[in-house]
Amino acid sequence: MRSPRPYNFSAGPACLPLSVLEQAAAEMCDWQGTGMGVMEMSHRSSAFQSIISQAESDLRQLAQVPDDFAILFMQGGALAENAIVPLNLAHTGQVDVAVTGSWSAKSADEAARYAHVHRVTDTVQDGYRSIPAPSTWTLREGVDYVHLCSNETIDGVEFAELPNLRELGCSAPLVVDCSSNQLSRPFDWSRIGLAFGGAQKNIGPAGLTLVYARKALMKSPLAACPTAFSFERVARDGSMFNTPPTYAIYIAGLVFKWALRFQYAGLQGLAALDAQNRDKAALLYGALDGSALFENRVDPSVRSRMNVPFFLRESSLTDTFLAQASQAGLMQLKGHKSKGGCRASIYNAMPLSGVQALVDFLQDFERRHG
Amino acid sequence: MRSPRPYNFSAGPACLPLSVLEQAAAEMCDWQGTGMGVMEMSHRSSAFQSIISQAESDLRQLAQVPDDFAILFMQGGALAENAIVPLNLAHTGQVDVAVTGSWSAKSADEAARYAHVHRVTDTVQDGYRSIPAPSTWTLREGVDYVHLCSNETIDGVEFAELPNLRELGCSAPLVVDCSSNQLSRPFDWSRIGLAFGGAQKNIGPAGLTLVYARKALMKSPLAACPTAFSFERVARDGSMFNTPPTYAIYIAGLVFKWALRFQYAGLQGLAALDAQNRDKAALLYGALDGSALFENRVDPSVRSRMNVPFFLRESSLTDTFLAQASQAGLMQLKGHKSKGGCRASIYNAMPLSGVQALVDFLQDFERRHG
């Protein structure tokens, strides 16, 4: 009998469904009788073409991505996209950014290398614990796009819903860095111009970047844009302008199949993941709010369902807590180095039982040390 | 008993050593007792830090990369590097390129988006079958760098040795796209300023790019360079400015270990691979040159030891040949779409027995159809 796996709360790369890893291991040397592993196949082979096509159509079905969006499989992660997006879209050189955490702040800084950037809101003084209502943002007329990060992995703040820019009188496309909450909940694609995210949280291995681009938005990039990072070119070549990260796409495809079959509370697919993510977050925040030792400091209306930073009021106990948690099979709970404290990332592949185990441990630790 | 694997002659992604795939499968769900697979580990974790450090030091030992070179683990492949290199190095905007095949031609075209490009030689009229002696190249004074492709994957021409630019009176650094022959033979690093290559031929999965950069050459890139692709920044952050392609680096590390242990003809490591590659190429070219049906059209002095394009003099037999070869377990022998015909890529992981099986099949096919 196999001993139970520890629960891995890494912010990314993050835990994957065990069934996905087991299938990948079983197929490592021979994918479906081809005599080759997926890593060894030409990206132009019919075998790999079937893998990438299936992955794209499963992702489209799962996340209900409309047909007027292209799905691109790219490389470089969100940090590269922070440059690639303005290189593709900032034709007039005016970009609005909502700075609601460490990642959108980085995006604003990088975009400022290619365009004039105006921060329509910036919560740095608040320690990135809240999101001002979009109706208060100082949106400008005629900008190339408005950027936001739908979930701030480091700070643990998440948009409960995406702003409707048109209702706010803004006709610019909305660009969403959804690295850490893509596939965790439904998105209202009618509000989105372009979204992007690294795969290494809810989707698969690091080294794969998903880009969801409204087809009408894609045109020739700025002159400085490397051809390999032109959305228009990558879309035209079906993500095969350069050799795509084939094995990462295969793993992502296995995760999409797992997600499509996922069941919870009588639901299936993204609806089931959404419901489980809601329940997992409620369970963990409930425990933190009911504790005299642990605390989460984010405005409850914008708390992230994916990344839960928390602190021990007696901070000298933090290292003891982390060491004992690790011994108890609750791994990678250390907070981001810029914030200190602890952080539990509870992406799609973290089951409710993992969050329950963490909550039980928090309460036990508090009894022993509180 | 396991049935033998077919031989996979793909140009890349390409075959990997079976022992590497078997170890990766065995460790997929639990790397060395951590309870986590490598794909699931934070890139900042001590476990992954040990993986990337070991991979770098093994690669440095294997390829004898001097200490005054940084080794960077990047993303985007050679096509992205075609832009990233001038974005980092073309400070005066003057670049020389030796065009000896399809890849160096692409590099010249992409570099021309960032700099004035002068082709010091161009063999397109010759069908990329030869390499004029570097002493005949029209090298210019004071350029930012001289680019060449050490092995042309599509055309099958390879530099038997890298030019010594200083002996030719040129003080510019040499930039080498070594995607398809890195680790297949020793390089004379004293002649190189910077080298780069996609991993998916001799090293591992697609989605990982190796950059070997002389430290003295790294400085602030051009203003348009995305921060994620600044050599200087990536080096300073130990390839952790953005999340690196962690699983691909792990696989590459297993391949480096395999290569360090590789033995052939009384040799070990890179010397053994070099010797086997020489013998594999001699066996295959010998069979082609001795055939009345098959032919290789490249100048014998610059024939690639990695990629062997060949043609049937009776071209109507090509499809029959490819179908029968595939049936006989000799896979992915179709030529690049721009060239037609056939191509056998015989990278490090292709054993001598695979080339012998191909030669036997060529001779058998010729007996039956010649």
UniProtKB/TrEMBL annotation, chains A, B:
UniProt superkingdom: Bacteria
Keywords assigned by UniProt, alphabetized: Amino-acid biosynthesis, Aminotransferase, Cytoplasm, Pyridoxal phosphate, Pyridoxine biosynthesis, Serine biosynthesis, Transferase
Essential cofactor(s): pyridoxal 5'-phosphate
Pathway: Cofactor biosynthesis; pyridoxine 5'-phosphate biosynthesis; pyridoxine 5'-phosphate from D-erythrose 4-phosphate: step 3/5; Amino-acid biosynthesis; L-serine biosynthesis; L-serine from 3-phospho-D-glycerate: step 2/3
Recorded catalytic activity of this chain's protein: O-phospho-L-serine + 2-oxoglutarate = 3-phosphooxypyruvate + L-glutamate; 4-(phosphooxy)-L-threonine + 2-oxoglutarate = (R)-3-hydroxy-2-oxo-4-phosphooxybutanoate + L-glutamate
Keyword Signal: no
GO BP term, example: pyridoxine biosynthetic process
PANTHER family: PHOSPHOSERINE AMINOTRANSFERASE
Protein name as catalogued: Phosphoserine aminotransferase
Organism: Inhella gelatinilytica
Gene symbol of the encoding locus: serC
